[in-house]
Amino acid sequence: MGANVSVRENIDLLLEAYDYELPPERIAQNPVEPRDSARLLVANSPASHNHRIFRELPDLLAPGDLLVLNDTRTIPARLYGNKPSGAAVEVLLLNERSPDTWLALVKPGKRLQPGAQIVFSAESDSPGADSVATLTATVLAREDATGGRILQFDVPPGTALVQLLDRFGCVPLPPYITDSKAPPERYQTVYAEHPGSAAAPTAGLHFTDELLGRLDARGIDRAFVTLHVGVGTFRPVKAAEITHHQMHGEWVEVGKETVEKIRQTQARGRRVIAVGTTVVRSLESAARGGTLQPFCGQTDLFIYPGYQWQVVDGLITNFHLPRSSLLMLVSAMVGRERLLELYREAIELEYRFFSFGDAMLLGNFAQRSPAI
């Protein structure tokens, strides 16, 4: 009982404290062009902030700082198929459990019990073949933790499902993007390399090749991690006391080269700046043992106010949904009340929100460099 009382006395641990009102017109339906012309709200101390443009990022960082980016590549993870009865089925692939066996969210789920089959169709690209090609998946099991299904796909020998997704699937834009004219590549970072994400790491969408070149010229280093975005990132928090929320695992890899770059950056007294919440979770997961080490595996790390930071000094991030685990993570860096104040001002100034929206550069950098 005492533990519950202490939680109730700390408003930062209550789900209701992460609510805010967002006018629907502030939800960006299309990205700005060019990518780096998005607005950037810079909050570099507990008391000050200013408004910039993302292309100005090299001027806001100092030589020797390290940007860490997520090089995952979004796959065409949404598929539309039918049961043998003809009933429509929508599938969102989350992560591969074994060769061609995937955890997926399915609609409608209640009628897709183990043994059920789903057939997907696509125009054939083989001369002389039937005009329509098909792909079949069988439901193996239901996963209680996510409410998803384990699907086994029947693919031709020597072929992996990911090789077929360009034909059978489409890029899964978030549900709040309902009227987008953006081509699929605009929901992909320019440095995306490793396929596997069900959603883009959207903070990275603002970078262009030209901007990366100017960061290089400024002496700002960069390194990469890979976190394949899945249900853990975008599943809503429902527990009234957020300490009861359980993050679902997502696959992450933090390599030896990235760890070495971070150690060198810290040894020089410079800053490690994560590009996106997925990078934050990757780096902090790699340091959960108390020391940053190369890491490859599943992470279920949930960061909220009170978290003791191990690696990350600053964060580039977009604006996040109310009551989301991502909003809680960012609150852990700058404080919940401070963050909601910044959100209110951003709304008043007509910033664009969510995946195709504007960005923030956050952190208290006084401990390292006064350059920001």
From TrEMBL:
It is found in: Cytoplasm. Pathway: tRNA modification; tRNA-queuosine biosynthesis. The keyword Cytoplasm applies. This is S-adenosylmethionine:tRNA ribosyltransferase-isomerase. One of its GO terms (cellular component) is cytoplasm. The gene is queA. Its main location: cytoplasm. GO terms for molecular function: S-adenosylmethionine:tRNA ribosyltransferase-isomerase activity.
